[in-house]
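Lecture 7 notes: from sequence to structure.

We start with a single chain of 60 residues. Read the sequence below before looking at the structure.
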Amino acid sequence: MPLEAGLLEILACPACHAPLSDSTAADTPELVCTGEDCGLAYPVRDDIPVLLVDEARRPA
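Now the structure, written as tokens:
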């Protein structure tokens, strides 16, 4: 996922405001919340992060 490093530094989880980290596990690009209690995974579609809580995948 070619997100610019500067963009990744300013993005935060909409639910808990923790920083996000990029993950490309299983060919599904995602931005994963680093918050201890949250952990939501937001999809990236066409190189655009979808930062909607309703679209996020809950942690297992």
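The beta strands are 20-23, 30-33, 41-45, 48-49. Keep this in mind for problem set 3.
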